[in-house]
Amino acid sequence: MQWRHPGHEFDGEAKRILQVFDNGRKIYVFGAGILGRDIRQRLELFGCFGGYVDNDKGKQKNGVDGERVMSFVEYMALSEKGILVLAADLKNIPAIRSQVTGAGLIETEDYYLWIDFTKRIYPILITYFYDKSYVELAQISLTEKCTLKCRKCAHACPYAEDSIEELSMEDVYDSADSFFKRVDIVREFVLIGGEPLLYKKLDEVVKYIGERYRHKIITFSIATNGTIVPSEQLLEQCVKFRVIFKVSNYSASVPRLVPKYERLEQVLKRCGADYEIGAAEMEWFDYGFDYVDQSDASQSDMMKLFDSCKTNCREVRRNRYYYCVMARSVSENMGFGVGNDDYLDLEKMSDQEYKKILLEFNLGYSDKGYLDMCRHCNGGVLAKRKRLRAAEQLGE
Question: Would you say the pTM of this structure is higher than 0.90?
Answer without folding.
Answer: yes
